[in-house]
Amino acid sequence: MSDLSTRRTSVIVLGGGPAGLGAAWQLARRGFAVTVVERGPAVGGNAGSLTVDGQRVDFGSHRLHPSCDPGILSDIRNFLGDDLLDRPRHGRIHLCGRWLHFPLKPADLVLHAPPAFAAGVLRDALWKPTPHGPENFASVLAAGLGPTICHDFYFPYAVKIWGMDPQRLDAEQARRRVSAGSLTKMVRKVLAPSKKGRFYYPRQGFGQISEAYAAAAEQAGAQILLNTSVTGIALQGNSRAAVEVRDAAGERTLEPGLVLSTIPIPQLARMLQPAAPGAILTAGGALRYRAMILIYVTLDTPQFTEYDAHYFPAAHIAITRLSEPKNYGLHGPAATTVLCAELPCDPADPVWQASDTDLQKLVLDALRQAGIPYEGRVLGTTARRLGQAYPVYETGFRRHFDPLDEWVSQLDGILTLGRQGLFAHDNTHHTLAMAYAAAECIDPAGRVDLDRWQQHRRAFEEFVVED
């Protein structure tokens, strides 16, 4: 690794997820003195991987979608080589008591869709209600998809994921989170070429993407500090800020430089000195995030099902999604498999404090209710808790986000990006696009071309999450 003291402008990246690491690599290879600060023991953040009972698993179900920017996909291919697998999507959804392939397939819909559901969708295609009242998540989807799909799938799923009535969610939640916003678009997706039913996945788990970016950044001269928390950020003007950090050795201050922040934007505002105005801190405190408990259950069987993921929109089934990492193409112990159940919640909910034993029972009960019970031996259960899994676009959330975003955008020496930094619903390929765009806007002296960045920000608004 090269001597950072001989490098050019200093850049401090807060957060070692895909956005932070992508930007770090781009800047380090251009000669910047880059330091990445990550509070966890490994890179990747919510897009990382870990090992449970000898099986490599992810923090939930992740895929690299074919819609990834070609340049970014080319970089990932160069990093991973043969470890980047081209995989078929093979999931299913539990809808109205029946199982349908997911993504949806025409023949499966004809043969297995509940008759009442199929009749309702046909009726909705022929007759659409006239929208009335203010726009929100519920009204936008109902106008585009019709009542049947909304009431049998999207609305109960929304309550489970975001913890509130769909009418209390902003219309932007529908536009940014539901790629098929009309029956016409949904039909096109169902009839799309087979490539739409495939995805890319690293042989060593989804976290291998972040690990590859980290290795490339370090090879280019970047320094990555793990198990290191940010305790304060002192603005010094002239595109420079001093970052105070704490690790096992104690507290210290990093050399001032341009700060690229991928941490949650309300958290960033609370750390800054001089202190943010009270109105800005209040706005940040009004933004809500949904938490997630990931429940890993190790089973005494080589495989639970053939499917990579199961989706559960029904309210009476506690979990929203169940994935089986082995079926994504991951190697693991031959005699056992691990399931990953996703349970959205709030940290104030009693389930947030539930024991591993209670969470194991919750998952097994959910499988029984879905008609896929496991009667064998459970070898162990491990839970991981993500405090800020999803931003919640509650109705009128922009009254809080926009003032906070505008204030942070005017700070000299700070640039915020990524899913957490921009309070955005995005996939990994979207956050990497943000990282590349941010690096492109920084000149050799560490100054940010704000006009160019705002052009990229407008493009980010068109990102739509792919499931």
Automatic annotation (TrEMBL):
- Which InterPro entries does the annotation name? Amino_oxidase, FAD/NAD-bd_sf
Gene Ontology cellular-component annotations: cytosol
Q: Where is the Amine oxidase domain?
A: 19-379
Q: Name one GO molecular function term.
A: UDP-galactopyranose mutase activity
Q: What is this protein called?
A: FAD-dependent oxidoreductase
